[in-house]
Amino acid sequence: MAGAGKPSPCQCSRMNPDSRKNCGFPGITSDQCFAAGCCFDTTVPGVPWCFTPLPMQDKEECVMEVSARVNCGYPGISPEDCASRKCCFSDTIPEVPWCFFPKPVQDMQKEDIM
């Protein structure tokens, strides 16, 4: 991910702290972390502060952990039918909802830290 640039706020703030995967080294600065394309948050003790972001989606409202997805479709739904329901579509992970409700982007207070 080196040189990937700073991830979007939703890619960082919607990550459950217990799910964080370390993306840095002890003593890494926020600038070094962001330069590596990773998230940086020092507010939660006992978990990595520099961590891998959630995957980017077409819309920021669709960035969320898989466990947060609420089904918006049916098995075999097409991306077009999903979009017509104003829902998010991602078929990269098997055995989870591929068509799911978006999560509003509204609470930016924690994201301002990133």
TrEMBL record:
Disulfide bonds listed in the record: 23-38, 33-50, 62-88, 72-87, 82-99
Keyword Disulfide bond: yes
A Pfam family per the record: Trefoil
Signal sequence, renumbered to the chain: none
InterPro entries according to UniProt: P_trefoil_chordata (IPR017994), P_trefoil_CS (IPR017957), P_trefoil_dom (IPR000519), P_trefoil_dom_sf (IPR044913)
A molecular function (GO) term: CXCR4 chemokine receptor binding
Positions of the P-type domain: 10-54, 60-103
CDD domains (UniProt xref): Trefoil
GO terms of biological process kind: chemokine-mediated signaling pathway; maintenance of gastrointestinal epithelium; negative regulation of gastric acid secretion
Alphabetic keyword roster: Disulfide bond, Repeat, Secreted, Signal
Gene Ontology CC terms, in alphabetical order: extracellular space
Localization of this protein: Secreted
Keyword Transmembrane tagged: no
Its job: Inhibits gastrointestinal motility and gastric acid secretion. Could function as a structural component of gastric mucus, possibly by stabilizing glycoproteins in the mucus gel through interactions with carbohydrate side chains.
Protein name: Trefoil factor 2
Native source species: Myotis brandtii
